[in-house]
Amino acid sequence: MSKGDETRHAILTEATAVAAKVGLTGMTIGQLAAHTGMSKSGLYAHFASKEALQLEILRHTRERFVDQVVRPALQTPRGIARLRVLFDAWVTWSESMEEGGCLFVAASSELDDQPGPVRDALVRDERDWLEMIATVAGTAVSEGELRDDLDLEQFAYEVHALTLAHQHASRLLRDPKALDRVHRAFDSLLTHSA
Which InterPro entries match (predicted)? Predict the structure, then answer.
């Protein structure tokens, strides 16, 4: 990795942390400059605009999500075992976020009524995530571990709903039973889907 790439990576790591706290639209180049110790012009040398920075933050977060959630699941045998690893890795991802929680969840509320390229990128990421859940559930169907007539899109919707409910219960409500509740709900969904 070149020095420029290292600097860009460090900026994106810090920008992601700032965006998780104040939102993608709430983050300013000035805030980021203060957090990184760089000048505004130095930041603009790496990112031509705030929108370009927001898009790069989403890309950077997506890459981390794939590394921490998707890849471990794909290294697991097909079927329910893979589905469980995917779900557990997402819960771990959510639990590991410090201030602000999951950037994708926060940005979904922030950008839902804000048309433009940043919202479009987030929508693509969310659709890819739903498709990943449905695909992994489909392997459990093909392995005979979930019923043949399972509506994979509905299953993905319900798993996604569980992850959003967990984020809400854990972060907003500070429910000490949030982790137990989301695992029980997932087990119940699997039982209902078998």
Answer: Homeodomain-like_sf (IPR009057), HTH_TetR (IPR001647), Tet_transcr_reg_TetR-rel_C_sf (IPR036271), TetR_C (IPR011075)
pLDDT digits (tens, 9 = 90+) for 46-67: 888 889 999 999 999 999 999 9
CA-CA-CA-CA dihedral for 93, 99, 101, 105, to nearest 10: -140
- 33 contacts 40 by C-beta, under 8 angstroms: yes
Instruction: Report the predicted TM-score, pTM, of the whole model to 2 decimal places.
Output: 0.90
Domain 54-193 CATH (choose: 1.10.357.10, 1.10.1040.50, 3.90.230.10, 1.10.230.10): 1.10.357.10
Q: How many CA atoms lie within 13 A of 142 on its CB side?
A: 10
Residues 117-132: pLDDT tens digits? 999 999 999 999 999 9
Amino acid 36: pLDDT:
86
Domain-wise residue ranges, the chain = 54-193
